[in-house]
Design goal:
Layout lengths: L10 E4 L3 H12 L5 E4 L3 H10 L6 E2 L3 H6 L6 E4 L5 H13 L5 E4 L5 H11 L5 E8 L1 H7 L2 E4 L3 H14 L2 E2 L2 E2 L9 H29 L5 H11 L7 H11 L9 H4 L9 H12 L4 H13 L2 H10 L13 H31 L5 H7 L10 H11 L10 H24 L4 H14 L5 H12 L11 E4 L7 E4 L5
The structure holds 6-phosphogluconic acid.
6-phosphogluconic acid binds next to helix 8 and helix 12.
Catalytic activity: 6-phospho-D-gluconate + NADP(+) = D-ribulose 5-phosphate + CO2 + NADPH
Subunit structure: Homodimer.
InterPro entries: 6-PGluconate_DH-like_C_sf, 6PGD_dom2, 6PGDH_C, 6PGDH_Gnd/GntZ, 6PGDH_NADP-bd, 6PGdom_BS, NAD(P)-bd_dom_sf, Pgluconate_DH
Length: 485
């Protein structure tokens, strides 16, 4: 390799598909960064360096040269498809890096893999950092929201580099050290779960405005653009308006009408729900969003039911205030989905021993990422005021907002049910809220059933202890020594 490139770059990027290339270009555009680039297929590296001479990339064809081109402590961000490919690249770098060097996995890795990788690599003295990066291709280029895990020590080197490329929200870079080992990828996973829920809720709002409200996509786009000026302001609302305004060039129809209605997924929403189940955290809003995609992608079952359904309910008549009702229902449901996501973060932090700062997470989600919105300021304020609130729904701002929209929320869910419009997101959010708000739940009856068939025991409302009724005997009650669960 040319002697002139040895130790020249302060940061390297491995994997130059769109996300990697854009992140490398973003890094190169910031004062003080010299960026080394490496890709398994050199042609891709040449394309990038050829198209972007201004970036001054230090390109290497061989991994040894790439490693040599990095200043110490060497810092390399891996941007390859999550999975086996990531391990192969990590192994190549671990072989060549030295204690104190830093390997960053910037893909959408499963945080369990990140924890295992960190455990495997840390004895070598090399820092392994799993960093969630959100914002899609454009975010990678112009400023993503970054959620790095890994050691405190690695963040001393990495923090300023990541801060140089992150989005800026209200003067602050959208990056913070989330916690050790897999914390960054865990929080990115929850971000994606919330992203699924938010998208599903917006999609339900669209369906209601169209099916019940009788509006065409272009008119709904206008409604969403209006909403984007108020409390619902968010990147997802903004892009939804653009998608709805799009007209298909081939047919002249609204774009949304020519797209097959089967939603795909790459897995992070499923991970969120799986992990929330393991943590015992109800994330119904996120789960319903994952299930809604799954239902949409079952054409055989959909066709089978459609073939036996004789008639569909009559669409309810609504007046001009319907759109306003839907906006309130959307907001209240959104508050629930975010509250559930933060509950999962709190439980994950406790289980995995991460010292997570909730208001900082809300702050780094204000810019760059897919769920970016003003709304995140309210969440940051709520946790800033009282980090120990039991749920975001308890925070005065959200309690008031939900109370204010509650009647509209109920009208919308009822109208949807009567009209046969599926609203799994709105409906489950409302049921979750009602469950928390109810003084008594039928869980008491479930306990009775469990005790009846399995002697699972129960607690009483009026006396301490654990009890069992002798259901197959004289039905008298006995106090047991075990614990009721
Ligand atoms: C982001 C996105 C990004 C990706 C999702 C899409 O934060 O930039 O979340 O990570 O677009 O993985 O997920 P699905 O393909 O599962 O919808």
């Amino acid at each position: 390799m040319p002697e002139s490139t040895v130790g020249k770059a302060n940061i390297g990027v491995v994997g130059l598909a769109v996300m990697g290339s854009n992140l490398a270009r973003n890094l190169a555009s910031r004062e003080g960064n010299t960026v080394a680039v490496y890709n398994r297929t050199f042609a891709r590296t040449e394309t990038l360096t050829g198209e972007h001479p201004e970036a001054g990339f230090v390109a290497s064809e061989a991994i040894d040269d790439f490693v040599a081109s990095l200043q110490k402590p060497r810092t390399a961000i891996i941007m390859v498809q999550a999975g086996a490919g990531t391990d192969a690249v990590i192994d190549e770098l671990v072989e060549r890096f030295e204690p104190g060097d830093i390997i960053v996995d910037g893909g959408n890795a499963n945080f369990h893999d990140t924890i295992a990788r960190e455990k495997r690599i840390s004895p070598t003295g090399i820092h392994f950092v799993g960093a969630g990066i959100s914002g899609g291709e454009e975010g990678a280029l112009k400023g993503p929201s970054i959620m790095p895990g890994g050691s405190e020590e690695s963040y001393k080197t990495l923090g300023p580099i990541l801060a140089s490329i992150a989005a800026i929200a209200e003067g602050e870079p959208c990056v913070t050290h989330i916690g050790t080992d897999g914390a960054g990828h865990f929080v990115k996973m929850i971000h994606n779960g919330i992203e699924y829920a938010d998208m599903q809720l917006i999609a339900e709002a669209y369906d209601l405005l169209r099916t019940v409200g009788g509006l065409e996509p272009a008119a709904i786009a206008d409604v969403f653009s209006e909403w984007n000026k108020g409390y619902l302001e968010s990147y997802l609302i903004e892009i939804t308006a653009e998608v709805l305004r799009q007209v298909d060039a081939k047919t002249g129809k609204p774009f949304v009408d020519i797209v097959l209605d089967e939603a795909g997924s790459k897995g992070t929403g499923v991970w969120t729900v799986q992990n929330a189940l393991d943590l015992g955290i109800p994330v119904g809003g996120i789960a319903e969003a994952v299930f809604a995609r799954a239902v949409s992608s079952k054409p055989t079952q959909r066709a089978a039911v459609q073939s036996v359904v004789k008639s569909r309910p009559e669409i309810q008549k609504v007046d001009a205030s319907f759109a306003d009702d839907v906006s309130k229902a959307l907001y209240a449901s959104k508050v629930v989905a975010y509250a559930q996501g933060f509950d999962a973060i709190i439980a994950g932090a406790e289980k995995y021993g991460w010292n997570i700062n909730k208001d900082k997470i809300a702050k780094i989600w204000r810019g760059g990422c897919i769920i970016r919105a003003q709304f995140l300021n309210r969440i940051a304020d709520a946790y800033d005021e009282n980090p120990d609130i039991a749920t975001l729904l308890e925070a005065p701002y959200f309690a008031d907002a939900v109370a204010e929209g509650e009647a509209a929320w109920r009208r919308v869910v009822a109208t949807a049910a009567l009209s046969g419009v599926p609203v799994p997101g709105f409906g489950s959010a409302l049921s979750y809220y009602d469950s928390l708000a109810s003084k008594r739940l039928p869980a008491a009856l479930v306990q009775g059933q469990r005790d009846f068939f399995g002697a699972h025991t129960y607690k009483r409302v009026d006396e301490d202890g654990v009890f069992h009724t002798l259901w197959s005997g004289d039905r008298s009650e006995i106090q047991t020594t075990g614990s009721s669960h």
